[in-house]
Amino acid sequence: MSREDSGWEWVDGAPRWAPTASNAISELTYDKYGQEHDELRAKLMDIVRAAERDASEKLRLAGHEEAAALIFPEYPKESDSE
User: Fold this and answer.
1) What is the C-alpha separation between 42 and 15, in angstroms, rounded?
2) Which of 11, 13, 19, 48 has the most neighbouring CB atoms within 10 Å?
C-alpha cells in the first residue's frame, strides 16, 4: 500500500487513509462527467492551491524559504490566468 497508489499508508503498524491531493480529487469526481466534472475539479483544485499557499506562507514566516519554494514556487507572485 502506498499513498500514491491507493491513498493508504502504514503508520506504527496500522493502516491510515492519507490520500494524495490527486487521489482525493479522483475519489470525489469519479462519477461526474463533462462540465460537472470539470467544474468540481476546478473548485477542488482551488482548495489545493489555497492549502499550498497557506503552507508556503507559514514556512516563509518561519524562515524556511527553500521549503516554501518547493511547496508553491510561484507564491506570492503567482498568476491567476491558468
Assistant:
1) 30
2) 19
